[in-house]
Amino acid sequence: MLTNPRSDRVKAVRALSRRSVRSRTGEFLAEGPQAVREAVAFRPDLVRDVYVTPEAAQRHTAIVEAAQAAGLRVHDVSPDVLAAMCDTESPQGIAAVCRVLDVPLHEALADLPPDALVCVLTNVRDPGNAGTVIRGADAAGADAVLVSDASVDVYNSKVVRSTVGSLWHLPLSVGAPVPEILAALRERGVRLLAADGAGTTLLHDADLSGAHAWVMGNEAWGLPQEVRDACDDVVRVPIHGHAESLNLAMAATICLYTSAEAHRSAR
Amino acid sequence: MLTNPRSDRVKAVRALSRRSVRSRTGEFLAEGPQAVREAVAFRPDLVRDVYVTPEAAQRHTAIVEAAQAAGLRVHDVSPDVLAAMCDTESPQGIAAVCRVLDVPLHEALADLPPDALVCVLTNVRDPGNAGTVIRGADAAGADAVLVSDASVDVYNSKVVRSTVGSLWHLPLSVGAPVPEILAALRERGVRLLAADGAGTTLLHDADLSGAHAWVMGNEAWGLPQEVRDACDDVVRVPIHGHAESLNLAMAATICLYTSAEAHRSAR
Asked: Which pLDDT score, from 0 to 100, does residue B157 have?
């Protein structure tokens, strides 16, 4: 049992709360049972160490057993040690150091089906929004999520937590410039739909057949003109009441689910 | 200009961050330009006092002018005073003390159109979720939002902020017990659709014609059996990928928008 919250190992794990350390080591910390369970279930090859308190080990026996069955190193730690490792206030007794899981752009787009659904996040800055969109993209059955450069780091603990495990569920690329992302999609015959409050096409009039990607902009200022111009259509979610707007995560989820439903009813 | 952050007036405003004080006084504090703008625009009759810093008064002249045109009392305050009044860390220089705006259940349901869309929140505890659902209901054109007893207080500053002004946009009832809410809707011919991950009807198969209400449950445990039994159908949003679930705000927004689209295409 690891009991010294000031040990070098604990400090090394805690340092993963810094983006610079994550970049250098290629590792990040998945905090809480949902994240650890999905990491172990979907990408055990990327899990380096699981840390669990005695209490959490009892409560989450299935996770611990799955980790052991996958041959992973599971370390017993005191609650103090876990708290010292984690960024979140209540990590619920379990965390895992994982290798980053993003892949190069061409690899994320390697196996797109004919009716591919892709989600592109450009300049998204709020961790909760980014994580919730990734979760929504997963739930809507998206085939890939592409996060552009100048966006929040997807390995930030708040993003990881907001994805509720979806981070490990679908091909993810991070850091490519927006023009490169759009060109790569276009090359593969994926139509580009910009989601923007300034769009002239209403969501229910948009052509959602075949392969397409939703291009989402920044929370506050939306998509710049040159990105909208580079897309095949600029689509807006209708606002029926008096609300000024929808937030990014809500708009993205509605767009992705509308696409999923269009694909489903076409099949 | 009010400059003393320890004055009785400032203390009285600050005390509105406590639910007990809000209940007793029937007042709450709307913090930030979006909330104040919508309160002044939609329900000036319920705004008691507007407090604004010199800097914010310059940045939000339209809000200040609208408040003055409505005959409201606009007080210049120092940044210290505004910070001492507010619950949020960065209130952006403007806040308003408002009368609560909920109405009795029968009043919230008084003017329902034949294709009414209603949102019922039962046992919702997270302020951000509650506020985001109210915003989503507004955007989807819902005709009323009914928040049951044992739910988060909608006048909590986090809820108010998350609604981004939608709090003032549509009839709202709070505090009625769930059975009473469901009976009142049924009496008015509004069909009851429980939104729940345990539902057997998929959203795209649900009957969304005519007047109906979406009944949303608690973030963690969903809807209790007796509430599901009291509804006409229990509907689940399909999960196409590997995501375990959608969060409450996302699920509610998808359901409400799907209803709005069904009503739109029927018209």
From this structure: 94
**CATH number of the domain within which A123 lies:** 3.40.1280.10
Q: Does A169 touch chain B (CB under 8 A)?
A: yes
What local confidence, expressed as pLDDT, does residue A90 receive?
75
pLDDT in tens, B51-69: 999 999 999 999 999 999 9
Spatial distance between the Cα atoms of B148 and B261, rounded to a whole number of angstroms:
26
Residue A133 lies in a domain: yes
Q: How far apart are CA A240 and CA B262, in angstroms?
A: 13
B204 → closest Cβ in A164, A242, A264: A264
Total domains present in chain B: 2
The set of residues, in sequence order, having a beta carbon less than 8 Å from that of B69 and lying 6+ positions away, is none
CB-CB contact of A133 with A142 (8 Å)? no
Parts of chain A with a pLDDT under 70: none
Question: Shortest CA distance to B76 belongs to which of B58, B100, B101, B103?
Answer: B58
Long-range contacts of B226-231 (CB under 8 A, 24+ apart): B227/B122, B227/B178, B227/B182, B227/B194, B228/B194, B228/B196, B228/B198, B230/B179, B230/B182, B230/B192, B231/B182, B231/B192, B231/B193, B231/B194
- Residues B162 and B220 both lie in one domain: yes
Q: Examine the domain organization and report whether B75 and B184 are in the same domain.
A: no
Q: Tell me, what's the pLDDT at A208?
A: 98
Strands A172-176, A117-121: pairing kind: unpaired
Tokens of A80: 């103090």
Residue where a domain terminates, one of B99, B133, B155 = B99
Position B219 scores a pLDDT of 87
Q: What's the CATH code of the domain at B59?
A: 3.30.1330.30
Closest chain B residue to the Cα of A260, Cα to Cα: B240
Domain boundary among B48, B65, B99: B99
| Residue B132 with chain A: CB contacts under 8 Å | 247, 250
B38 and B62 both lie in a single domain: yes
Q: Is residue B2 part of a domain?
A: no
Which residues from A are below 8 Å from B204, CB to CB? 261, 264-265
Residue B3 within a domain: no
Kindly state whether residue A166 falls inside one of the protein's structural domains. Answer: yes
Q: Which residue, chain included where needed, has tokens 């259509």?
A: A233
In chain B, positions 172-201, which contact chain A (CB-CB < 8 Å)? none
| Host domain of residue B253 | 105-266
Note whether A88 and A120 are same-domain residues. Answer: no
Q: What tens digit of pLDDT does each residue of B131-153 get?
A: 999 999 999 999 999 999 989 99
Residues A18, A123: one domain? Answer: no
